[in-house]
Amino acid sequence: MLQSIENRILLGFGLIAVLLGVIGYFAFKNVERINALNKDILSSYEIIAINQELLSLAIDMETGARGYIISGTGEYLQPLQNAVFKYPDRLTVLKQLSRTRPAITADVDSLPALFQRRKEISEDYVRIRQEKGLDSTFAIFGKGMEGKIITDKIRTISQKIGKSESASLRKLLKENYESFGEAAKILTFLIAVIIVTLITVFALFRRDISGRRRAEKQLQELNKDLEQKVEDRTEDLNRSFEDTEAKVKFRNLELEKQNRDLLKRNNELENKN
Amino acid sequence: MISRPFDEILPEHISGRWKVKSSTLSPQADYFRLASVVEHTFQADGTYSVAGPEPASGTWSIERNEEIIPNPIIYFELPNPRTNISAMITRLAYMPYTATKRDEMILYFSNGCELVLEKIQNL
């Protein structure tokens, strides 16, 4: 009985261990997937942020140069200088991040040349303003719109990248949400399996204990019954022995009495004779 | 059933109508007058009567010889032909805690016959 309880408990815990192993494997795979998705989501946020920053830098290049041309004040050159300093590094980071994004790779690859050109145009205007004055600069401005065209191209490409990456981000967030849903399902299943197994083991244990108690009680009753039977039987035997003894004595008494009667009758007959 | 101790058995425990529940005859025994009796009546005044194929009436009394045996002995005396019979009480038992009181008496005769009687009426 005891061995049976131990076996059942071992079986129950073995079952839990196997189930935990299987569920643990799926949970691990799910967590790995969520990690990968989180990395992608983080990359998307970075791409969107750098993309916006690059657009701002391109605009700064244009507006910084324009401000200086109009005012001739050196302070207006600061946004241009800042943009010229920052954009190569930002472009490098964007290119690295976009390696896993085939949809935007071509657009990202086209940006360095446009920024280079945007920088050259702004620096040309500044240099002409410094060397030849405001009128000469306006004269050059009036002839071509290349600077504006370049900035517009950068804006268009930036919007395209932003749109594509936002769509990608939405998709990734959706996948991430679904993965969390699956993880929650796995966790719920795991808890349910553990609870059901524990209840089953407990029920088996309790049934065995109840069975053992019942058997012990039955055994006690049987022992008690047996003791009573032995007692009754001993009493019966004693009584039977006493009965037999009494019967023998009684018959002896009767025989003695009959003998006495016979002797008495014999004496009477002798006396008559 | 609870057996009444032999030293506590009194004539009033015996007086009454008893029907024969079962009887055992010794194979060696000759004709026994009480073997075919179906009912025994012990009156408190010492009158004894039997019912059956050979009805008869006589007397009964209790005697004791406790130095030799503790069991009470009943002496029967029946006329036509005059017969003296002795029987030893081997058991006088009663059923306690029952609505209908049930007494049982076992008589052992010197010829080996044994009668099991059940009381049907107190007298």
Structure explained in plain terms:
The complex is a heterodimer of chains A (273) and B (123). By secondary structure, chain A is mostly helical. Helix content of chain A is 95%, strand content 0%. Chain A contains four helices and no strands. Chain A has helices at 2-71, 77-97, 102-143, 146-272. Chain A is rod-shaped, with a radius of gyration of 55 Å. The mean pLDDT of chain A is 88. Chain B has 123 residues and is mostly beta strands. Chain B is 3% helix and 55% strand. Chain B has one helix and nine strands. Chain B has one helix at residues 11-14, and strands at residues 2-3, 16-24, 39-42, 47-51, 56-65, 69-78, 83-94, 103-109, 114-122. Chain B has an eight-stranded antiparallel barrel. In chain B, β5 (56-65) and β6 form a beta hairpin. The relative contact order of chain B is 0.28. The interface between A and B is small, with 10 and 12 residues.
| H/E element order of chain A | HHHH
Report the helical percentage of chain B: under 10%
> What kind of sheet is the major sheet of chain A?
none
Q: What is the radius of gyration of chain B computed over CA atoms, rounded to a whole number of angstroms? A: 14 Å
- SSE order of chain B: EHEEEEEEEE
Roughly what percent helix of chain A? over 70%
What structural keywords apply?
A: 273 residues; mainly alpha; 0% strand; rod-shaped; B: 123 residues; eight-stranded antiparallel β-barrel; 9 strands; 55% strand; globular
What's this, in brief?
Chain A is mainly α and 273 residues long. In chain A, 95% of the residues lie in helices and 0% in strands. The mean pLDDT of chain A is 88.
